[in-house]
Amino acid sequence: MKHLLAAEGLDRDTVTDLLDTADELKHTLLGREVRKLPTLRGRTVITVFYENSTRTRVSFELAGKWMSADVINVSAGGSSVGKGESLRDTALTLTAAGADCVIIRHPASGAAHRLAHWLADTPAAVVNAGDGMHEHPTQALLDAATMREKLGSLDGRRIGIVGDVLHSRVARSNVHLLTCLGAEVAIVAPPTLLPSGIGTWPVTVSHEIDAELPSLDAVMMLRVQAERMHGGFFPSAREYAIGYGLSEARAALLPEHAVILHPGPMLRGMEIASRVADAPNALVTDQVANGVHVRMAVLYHLLASEGAESA
Amino acid sequence: MPETVLLKGVRRYGEGEPVDVLAAEGVIAEIAQGITPPEGADVIDAEGHVLLPGFVDLHTHLREPGREDTETVATGSAAAALGGYTAVFAMANTDPVADTAVVVEHVRRAGEAAGLVDVHPVGAVTVGLKGEKLAELGTMAESAARVRMFSDDGLCVHDPLIMRRALEYSRALGAVIAQHAEEPRLTVGAQAHEGTQAARLGLAGWPASAEESIVARDCILAAHAAARLHICHVSASGTVDVLRWAKQRGTQVSAEVTPHHLLLTHDRLDTYDPVNKVNPPLRTGADAKTLREALAEGVVDCVATDHAPHAEQDKDCEWQAARPGMLGLQTALSIVAETMVRPGLLTWRDVARVMSERPAEIARLADQGRPIAEGEPATLTLVDPDARWTVRGAEFASIAANTPYEGMELPARVTATLLRGRVIARDGRIR
Amino acid sequence: MASRSRDATGAAAERELLSAGDVARTVARMAHQVIEKTAVGADTEPPVLLGIPTRGAPLADRLAERISEFAGVTVPHGSIDITLYRDDLRRRPTRPLEHTRMPESGIDGRIVILVDDVLFSGRSIRAALDALRDQGRPKAVQLAVLVDRGHRELPIRADYVGKNVPTSRAEDVSVLLTETDGRDAVLLRPAREEGQS
């Protein structure tokens, strides 16, 4: 594995390796005073964020720092990126300056693929930290890690993804990763928020959340972005909350063992009732904590070895 | 000094016995077997090559004025001549927009100065391509450029009232309105054909309905206005159904398809390489198949390249940031050979129809797309049907190199192009 | 106790240095040595045994069991993965991580005995010492190995050695344990191609 561009195409062994590594890292670091491993000493990791996301950037930064990599953050506002330099030139500049890994967040779908293409002749690894409406593979990995922690193996589990699937990179990555791990994915969304090609995805699609909840082992509530609310995809926030929000009454339809996830930031009262978000089976903070370990695992797999024979 | 050219051993329309064709004084002087070359004649040994009337491209972007870093009328003319074209229509979305007599006359004169192919400027339908107010169509028609085709190509004349007026008004000018059919409200931010690939790759969808609905609307408007309508770059199979229906009703509608929509599909989008980004987008294999059949049947009248040069920085970037469009002039014949002739959908005589005769008729060019007969203009294209060649964008006459066919091996090659008796391109070189 | 076996080509393939019985006896002897050296008894705090995965971990478990059995006290034991501290990560394919299990007692102020199967260059032990430093501050660190085969590259010496085996660099010492390999034995083999041969 040279880059992590997408969850699509990852095989089950690779995903399991990554999750197992994240698990070991979590236990290795548990309760330690000094959360620092020497593993990536001398390696340079650069995060380049063309969209604001403090949550994801900090998670990657901690992951790199806890493994002793030198982490440099470039944000679109604070560099030549903001002065209209092309993504290609920025990428070539960063690797010429010695980046071993470029972590990119970009509003254009496929930006990470393009970056990997431009850096093909360099040893630098590219990690996709979210590209447009395409994928966000580390989010799916941390979701899987969180669910695995509570549910054990995901093989044969039924996992619901509710909300704006059309625009969601989190949903795309999760569909690939969860099906790769043997889970069944049940999509629930209004027809306007489903991509027109969803018929070929390995998922079930429904518009009736109440009918799905009793059979789910986990439910993932997607974020509804403000611009969608005014984009005519549904009549009003109120009607969305009534039709697709996870209210207390709805959460009660879930089986007792089922868990609730949300990639954050949450719109309480809209996608998810406040009390549901704070319930013991809502794993939002576990997701954040696991995010660091999963990203450490990704950096470990991409950067620890230079061995050409590495699988 | 007028040239005398003798083409030896050619097969007209790829049919019949090989003959010699003598071009002198700009016309076909003699067609016979074993013509003795007149003194000083340029003899082209073309044993077994297919002789066709010079190609006419109703849809070319020559980028002048405004983006001369990607193409000029001169370099575009060269690309056209090398691709077998003898007349091209230069779209109006230049900078400044070709919405006045001044701009269209500039393009016309630049074409004459280049001196290779006939360059016909297309005038904008609306001022600045804004879709709000009719441009001075009459003035452009009366100008030295003699504009007979108007289009806002790149943008759709989306307001039905403006479109109705344009169609009606064009009747008095003997002109045709060429519509870029794309309902803009359905394609806000669109990046790729709305379907499985767009869903998978997270690209905003460009639904076929955005094309089909405008074509349906405009066919109805054209019928009521008793005006002539031409549909640019048909890309969706549903559009073919609409066209068939409109033609059956006797609507004066014609349509073109691009070589890339005949060959390429959205399956190529996996790498996010914007060389595959084009408007309308590459669609499904089923769409491409329907378009090939429609071209064979005549529901789609002709092939037009939508040749769209773009600078490297506008193509070697993120998909979303890239400009849509691809080079087409020097590959069109080979793509038609690959998609239509090889599978037996078209004969070479049919190729003459879809690449020369029908486009000349649609644009009402009296001296293009003529029969290959004695006394007719010697405006001809010679094709080696058995050649195979590998596409190298850097070797094209265009300044830009954004060909989606880079590295592909393609069949058939233009070996000579003659405009009114003069050899303008031969064996891959401009004359 | 030494025996020879032959592989399919008939070449001398491997030699058994220790049989299953030898392994058990050796571990028992090492347990006695630990009890003696660290004065394990009712009135002293027993040492903490940390095995280095893969095979050091079950060895530490067995050693702890024997010590408990012989001295009548519970000996805290666990494992410490050194993968993240290795100095050869860049040159090898990515390695999966092994378990780190710290006993509840912790290691602060205790005598920690690192347990490994084979002591060779000493680099694994250096990595283990680094890993240990990040886990806490032991009173003292000792080292127990089933086999010491020589060829040290660092100034490291074991406190408890099951068997000293003089080897050449063209040879490999393989420790097999029931927990990981289905049987107990110690074998001397020609080094694999990618080794030092």
What amount of the residues of chain A lies in strands? 5-15%
SSE order of chain C: EEHEHEEHEEEHE
- The CATH topology of chain C turns out to be Rossmann fold
Poorly predicted tracts of residues of chain A: none
* CATH level 1 class label of chain C: Alpha Beta
**CATH architectural category of the largest domain in chain A:** 3-Layer(aba) Sandwich
What distance lies between the first and last C-alpha atoms of chain C, to the nearest angstrom? 27 Å
Please describe the biggest sheet of chain A, giving its number of strands, its sense, and whether it closes into a barrel. Answer: 5 strands, parallel
The helix content of chain A is 25-40%
Counting DSSP H or I runs of 4 or more residues, the number of helices of chain C is: 4
In N-to-C order, the SSE pattern of chain A is HEHEHEHEHEHEEHEHHHEHH
Globally, the shape of chain A reads globular
The total tally of domains of chain C equals 1
Give the overall pLDDT of chain A as a whole number.
92
Give an overview in words:
The complex is a heterotrimer of chains A (311), B (431) and C (197). Chain A is of the alpha/beta class. Chain A folds into 2 domains: 12-135 and 290-303, Aspartate/ornithine carbamoyltransferase (Rossmann fold); 137-287, 3-Layer(aba) Sandwich (Rossmann fold). Chain A is 39% helix and 14% strand. Chain A has helices at residues 12-29, 54-66, 87-96, 111-118, 137-151, 169-180, 209-212, 226-229, 237-244, 248-251, 274-277, 284-303; strands spanning 44-49, 70-75, 101-106, 125-131, 158-162, 184-188, 204-206, 218-221, 259-261. In chain A, α4 links the parallel β3 and β4 (125-131). The longest helix of chain A has 20 residues, at 284-303. Chain A is globular and about 55 Å long. The model of chain A has no long low-confidence stretch (mean pLDDT 92). Chain B has 2 domains: 4-50 and 375-430, Urease, subunit C, domain 1, CATH 2.30.40.10; 54-362, Alpha-Beta Barrel (TIM Barrel), CATH 3.20.20. Chain B contains 12 helices and 19 strands. In chain B, the strands form 4 sheets. In chain B, strands 1, 2, 3, 4, 5, 16, 17, 18 and 19 form a 9-stranded mixed sheet that branches. In chain B, strands 9-10-13-14-15 form a 5-stranded parallel sheet. In chain B, a hairpin with a 2-residue loop joins β2 and β3. In chain B, α6 packs parallel to α7. Chain B is globular. The mean pLDDT of chain B is 97. Chain C has one domain: 3-Layer(aba) Sandwich (Rossmann fold), CATH 3.40.50.2020. Chain C is an alpha/beta fold and 197 residues long. In chain C, β5 (111-119), α3 and β6 (140-148) form a beta-alpha-beta unit. Chains in contact: A-B, A-C. At the A-B interface, α4 of A face α5 of B.
